[in-house]
DNA sequence: AAGTGAAGCAACCGCGGCGTT
DNA sequence: CAACGCCGCGGTTGCTTCACT
């Protein structure tokens, strides 16, 4: 696979990479490390632009990059992180060691997004597009690569799973006195199952942070955040990324500790 | 066997953030 | 403080492979 090779006006090579080019890039970085991407190609004897080298290294050649099919656990993780972080693929990739942002983004766009559409779930809000009252049967994840795991459909997935997690995160953030610690607790809590119901705990959270949830409008599945709340949330998520890594990795043997229970419980 | 569309993957493009001058 | 350049990110495109007719 890959693109055809061509040269642009200034003689820079574009398109697919050859084995020889890969070897040159790897050999150079192994010996000298990553320095200035601008000058790296020339020093490494490549006719590529720095951007292209960086992309190739980060997405394909970098040690530890995992290639091949996504496991059901990884797919579940992507959906869960996406429900929290949105299209911040780099941030999602940070939580999934071995997978590049490009890889995750591609898998999302080519497979997971369509799967949610087929299931009638809004890909941005993770809410069912169809009437909640409609009883939805179980369905199979049918993305070829996934070993056929059955996941119960909405409402358990959308409103009790990711939505619940979101609510609890929102609750944590709404209370400035708990702030990041509250979110870390949510992530580190082994009971934070994505698919199993979390309504009880959410109710408890609401008691803890009743003031933040005072409005009736906020009693729905999703809190309605204003821009200020959302901005704070994204800032705090950004600040805690390294720590969240630790939390996720330490809570279980799985690299994706926060969500593994949902798939491994049965 | 040939044609066609969907799926999957690799890479490019353009923009915004950030550091430097 | 503005201008500039580089880097990283997200969106998009292009190509190959696969499945189906």
Give an account of the 3D structure.
One of its GO terms (molecular function) is transcription cis-regulatory region binding. InterPro entries: Homeodomain-like_sf, Myb_dom, Myb_TF_plants, SANT/Myb. It holds the Pfam family Myb_DNA-binding. Residues 199-218, 242-266 are annotated as: Disordered. Residues 9-61, 62-116 form the HTH myb-type domain. The chain is mainly alpha-helical and 266 residues long. The protein folds into 2 domains: 16-61, Homeodomain-like (Arc Repressor Mutant, subunit A), CATH 1.10.10.60; 68-266, no CATH class. Helix content is 50%, strand content 3%. It contains 11 helices and 4 strands; from the N terminus they run ββααααααββααααα. It has helices at 19-32, 40-43, 50-61, 72-85, 89-94, 101-118, 158-174, 179-188, 199-208, 227-250, 260-264, and strands at 6-7, 13-14, 139-140, 150-151. Strands 1-2 form a two-stranded antiparallel ribbon. The protein has a two-stranded antiparallel ribbon with strand order 3-4. Strand 1 and strand 2 form a beta hairpin. Helix 7 (158-174) runs antiparallel to helix 8, helix 7 packs parallel to helix 9 (199-208) and helix 8 crosses helix 10. The longest helix is centred in the C-terminal third of the chain and has 24 residues, at 227-250. The radius of gyration is 21 Å and the shape is elongated. The two termini are 38 Å apart. Residues 131-226, 240-255 and 257-266 have low confidence and may be disordered. It binds a DNA duplex (21 and 21 nucleotides) through residues 1-4, 14-17, 36-38, 50-52, 54-56, 58-60, 87-90, 101-103, 105-107, 109-111, 114, 143-145.
